[in-house]
Design goal:
With about 200 residues, this protein is α+β, with helices and mostly antiparallel strands. About 25% of the residues lie in helices and about 35% in strands. An eight-stranded antiparallel beta sheet has the order 1-2-3-4-8-7-6-5, with helices on both faces. A hairpin with a 2-residue loop joins strand 2 and strand 3. The protein is globular.
Length: about 200
């Protein structure tokens, strides 16, 4: 569901003399989300790596994003038989990051998500950085100057995953009201058949 919501987010970023700690943040994303196909294992890994569970405050960018994600899932009505999610935060290489681990079940299938957000970030990363890390070019990408940059890889962080998504949204993007903030997102998803 996070990938679908992020698809409405709209990228181009201003150059900065202070480079983003991409290596450290991506390493944290890989460590936290590498087992996204296993919901319990992902939560255990996140906690073991020092991420702190918390409840986002009303009106915060994190709460706005989660509320819109909930509305999106609600649109599927009775198709959704189970849903849950947990929110964490940590500071990695000086960056205040949020992480959402989620699971949705319905229609005989499950979808797990592990999404790391740097909501206050004005810098962006080149798609080439992820292409190098993931060993493949994205299968889909979009770049709308002043609005959004996003790209998808399959399978992403691991062969057992559905995909990996990176997006960047400038603070003045028209997509900000929907997402709650601009910034960057790193999203891993896995999907499969229930009891399969």
């Amino acid at each position: 569901m996070f990938a679908l919501l992020a698809a409405i987010a709209l990228t181009g970023a201003a150059p900065s003399d202070d480079p983003y700690p991409a290596e450290a943040v991506f390493a944290a994303v890989r460590a936290a989300c590498g087992d996204v196909q296993d919901y319990a294992a992902t939560q255990a890994a996140v906690r073991a790596q020092g991420w702190e569970a918390y409840e986002p405050e009303e009106g915060s960018p994190q709460r706005t994003f989660l509320d819109h994600a909930q509305l999106f899932v609600d649109n599927f009505g009775d198709m959704v038989s189970h849903r849950e999610g947990h929110v964490f935060r940590a500071t990695i290489a000086g960056e205040a990051l949020d992480l959402v681990v989620s699971r949705v079940e319905g229609g005989g299938r499950w979808v797990n998500g592990c999404a790391v957000f740097d909501a206050a970030e004005a810098r962006s990363l080149p798609i080439a950085f992820f292409t190098e890390k993931l060993g493949a070019a994205p299968y889909e990408r979009a770049d709308v100057p002043g609005a959004m940059r996003k790209a998808f890889w399959q399978p992403g962080l691991a062969p057992t995953h559905l995909n990996f998504e990176y997006y960047y949204v400038p603070a003045d993007s028209p997509g900000v009201p929907m997402l709650g903030s601009g910034g960057m997102g790193f999203i891993a998803q896995a999907s499969g058949e229930l009891n399969g």
